Amino acid sequence: MSTTININDSTIVKEIVANNFQTAKVFEKYGIDFCCKGNRPLTKAAEERKINISELIGELVSVSKNNKEKSERYDEWDLVFLSNYIVNNHHAYVREAIPRIQEHLEKVENRHGKTHTHMIDVNKLFRQISDEMISHMHKEEKVLFPIVKYLHDCKTFNEKPKTGGYGTIKNPINAMENEHIGAGGIMESIRELTDNYTLPEDACTTFTLTNKELEEFEQDLHKHVHLENNILFPKAINLEEELLKISK
Ligand SMILES: [Fe+2]
Question: Which of 225, 234, 122, 227 has its CA nearest to residue 182?
Fold first, then answer.
């Protein structure tokens, strides 16, 4: 039976989202980073964004209470199921969205680049994040997630895992976390350049659609990074540590 955590000043941001993903909407509304910078107490995140802490707690509690049954309990899933979910849901979305958004950004740059020059930079940044994400997902699917699966199998058979050329799982995880910081930073720059995805008055249909697609891409990235940084990775590290204690 799942429980709702008690939310107060010192509750850690990532734990609130891990307990109920519906709370991500509240953090997004206030521009609080819950994925790459989620390891902070609520009071610190509120101070940084100059938000009234009592109001923030009130909103988080209300969202948690009202939407508990609608939220998937990702933190209760087994690690192989969660990593498959990330691949089948988030990685598949990124692979489908990249060529679509790139095509739309090309059109926007060609039609509006002279009057809205920031869209030239947005297009360049999106090409950069596209390349980085394709390589990042490949590393996760070919290197990191198979290690997670191996550890999961070791647990099933109560076997001590053999550590490979990667040392411990912390090493590939650190590398992936650094890449998440890079990707998050690029999407933050896109958000700033577009003034929080504000559309100019003369925006055509493609411009409007592209703006929406970029915002959706950023939201998906936040969820994807949250599931890895705040749930999958710490659990995989704990599992490996636990299994390495097996004497045989
Ligand atoms: Fe990732």
Answer: 225
